[in-house]
Amino acid sequence: xxxxxxxxxxxxxxxxxxxxxxxxxxxxxxxxxxxxxxxxxxxxxxxxxxxxxxxxxxxxxx
Length: 62
Fold this sequence. Notes:
This protein has one helix at 50-61, and strands at 5-8, 13-24, 30-36, 43-47. The protein has 62 residues and is of the alpha+beta class.
């Protein structure tokens, strides 16, 4: 299983997203939010494109 990654502003690097959850923003676009696996005190948010959305949804269903 591939990991979901995103850029953490606090840690200033790309980290794995722990506890990922797909959310819908006000404008209708989909995103994934969670916490940084290295340091759970930092939240990570990543806006998804259509191709990436399908991949992430499939990973979360497993």
